[in-house]
Amino acid sequence: MSQVITVISGDGIGPEITRATLRALEALQCDLEYEHVDAGLAALERDGELLPEPTLESIRKNGIVLKGPLTTPVGKGFRSVNVSLRRTFDLYANVRPVLSIPGTKARYEDVDIITVRENTEGAYLAADAMVAEDGSRAESKMIITRKGSERVTRYAFDLARREGRRKVTLVHKANILKAVSGLFLDVSREVARDYPDIECEEMIVDATCMKLVMDPHQFDVIVTTNLFGDILSDLCAGLVGGLGLAPGANIGRDAAMFEAVHGSAPDIAGKKIANPCALMLAAAQLLTHIGRNDEAGRLRRAIVATIGAGDRLTPDLGGDGSTESIADAIIERL
After folding, report:
1. Which of the chain's termini has less CB crowding within 10 Å, N or C?
2. Catalytic residue numbers?
3. Residues 166, 130: one domain?
4. pTM (2 decimals)?
């Protein structure tokens, strides 16, 4: 039976890289069907809403989403579309792998790190946020829960065990944020005891940043809270060549969303030079999630081989090709 997935092409370069990614999925012949819906600026212009109800209903029905980058208009009254999707569907685990690919401008070789970030609470919850009328002071509460900490840490350890990883690093700031970060660390320690086969280490977030830059090979799986994970996952992407090669999965109990983590890049939209590899790698994550491991591996290998060969690459990868030319090269290898 074919699997139906919701497809949100997105804004800016989103439609271009989504078309290229769907072409690659079609070449894999993995029996997928697509339900196309809008969100972001495209939905706002057509329906007057950033997240129309038909889009939400499609996600509820299908449970699997492939999403291009979305733009949230700047200004008050517009809540981040990505944050809204994560909260609406309780997509609590943000999973961002980075892998060194020969032929890129990466600063290191043989980096292979997965960052698992709690996606629904922490600093980004911005509970009771307020700004004083005179603009002299702003404040909001950071909220960490036992439930949130337990489930994201357990997801990270289950992921490590499933993929044959050797170590999970618990990243925190419990030396200063003793209550909120301390609770995350305490709960994560409890979870770690259930996985005696996986090495567990603890590391303060600022030390983690330094050690990632100096020697990233010591890391395997990192699990942390929302704000720290947002920063660390981008740092990790920089180690392997940038966000053009950085996919992301947002996992919940009833739904999962797979995306390129870079922005909509309106400055190059329509120029046909956007790199589709991040979204293609996110599609590989999607395939793994639905049990199509062979197809996921084929897609990853074709991407790595194409970049390694310097074959029709986009300008950000050092070539003079286009979105479609790199897609052609990847599809030929499939």
Report:
1. N
2. 124, 173, 206, 230, 234
3. yes
4. 0.94
